């Protein structure tokens, strides 16, 4: 059995014995520019997660699966038009060589084949969390004018776009998704709470919603360990004054309740200014609504 297979089998046994998941995610990136990923995958959190055995990332050269001496992966579009289109044959053969579950069985096998496409669902933190729960993630990097539609319809099980703009190819998008997903794997970061206090996090806090245990944080965001789906609050570090710019006094006075309330108000204020659309989806408490009213009143003055 291959090394990756042994590890998956071993971790599966541990899962059964301990009743919890010991993470192992494999990410396969299909591209015509494999050398692109030498940098993004060899530094920081991704490198540490790979070294710790939490994730395995394989970059697959699409041209290996071509049949002609020119290693052709694209052709002109039917019906005319500008640009070239990635051919279906090498993409189908590459994905099929990975021995994944069939399309209908992928969800149960916790596998997904993603086509990076400007026409796809917009990538966000909720989707990143969904992908981080998989055992196998395949990212197909589109190129040129586009990808033969049969790939999106019959090979990939979802299409993802990282934003409402057009890139030259899917490689940057694949690097973004890989980084975002890997840092959500338990153990990838030094402190599990780190991902819960960042922008867009809308899941429960550590400990869930059990209010009977005073040592466990509730699911309600408190601006210290959860953003509640808002943008993150501002951060400051030493020195306390730099070129006449001072850290807000509330952050150095030692009153934890004042700090909590300031952080929550600041997160609401920044979200209202930069991403007001997030407020429609966020879990707002009564205190949040009071703070928003204060912010609105201050803006009118």
Protein architecture, described:
Helix content is 31%, strand content 15%. The chain is an alpha/beta fold. The protein folds into two domains: 3-182, Alpha/beta knot (3-Layer(aba) Sandwich); 198-300, Trp Operon Repressor, Chain A (Orthogonal Bundle), CATH 1.10.1270. Strands 2-1-6-5-8 form a five-stranded parallel sheet, sandwiched between helices. The protein has a three-stranded mixed sheet with strand order 3-4-7. The chain starts with a helix and ends with a helix. Mean pLDDT is 85; it is low at 1-19 and 204-225.
Task: List the keywords.
alpha/beta, 2 domains, Alpha/beta knot, 31% helix, disordered N terminus, three-stranded mixed β-sheet, 8 helices, five-stranded parallel β-sheet, single chain, elongated, Trp Operon Repressor, Chain A, 301 residues
């Amino acid at each position: 059995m291959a090394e990756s297979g042994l590890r998956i089998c071993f971790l599966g046994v541990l899962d059964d014995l301990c009743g919890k998941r010991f993470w192992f995610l494999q990410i396969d990136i299909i591209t015509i520019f494999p050398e692109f990923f030498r940098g993004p995958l060899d530094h920081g959190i991704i490198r540490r997660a790979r070294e710790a055995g939490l994730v395995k990332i394989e970059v697959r050269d699409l041209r290996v699966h071509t049949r002609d001496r020119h290693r052709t992966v694209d052709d002109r579009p039917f019906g005319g038009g500008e640009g070239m289109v990635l051919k279906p044959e090498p993409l189908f053969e590459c994905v099929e060589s990975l021995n994944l579950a069939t399309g209908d069985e992928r969800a149960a096998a916790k596998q997904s084949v993603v086509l990076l496409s400007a026409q796809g669902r917009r990538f966000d933190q909720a989707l990143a969390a969904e992908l981080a729960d998989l055992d196998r993630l395949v990212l197909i990097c589109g190129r040129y004018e586009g990808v033969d539609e049969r790939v999106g319809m019959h090979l990939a099980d979802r299409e993802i776009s990282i934003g409402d703009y057009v890139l030259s190819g899917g490689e940057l998008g694949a690097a973004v998704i890989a980084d975002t997903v890997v840092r959500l794997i338990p153990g990838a970061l030094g402190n599990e709470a780190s991902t819960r206090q960042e922008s867009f996090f809308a899941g429960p806090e550590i400990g869930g919603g059990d209010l009977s245990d005073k040592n466990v944080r509730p699911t309600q965001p408190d601006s210290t360990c959860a953003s509640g789906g808002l943008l993150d609050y501002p951060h400051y570090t030493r020195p306390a004054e730099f070129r006449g710019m001072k850290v807000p006094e509330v952050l150095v006075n030692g009153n934890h309740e004042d700090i909590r309330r300031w952080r929550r108000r600041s997160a609401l204020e920044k979200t209202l200014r930069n991403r007001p659309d997030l407020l429609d989806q966020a879990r707002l408490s009564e205190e949040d609504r009071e703070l928003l009213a204060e912010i609105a009143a201050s803006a009118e003055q």
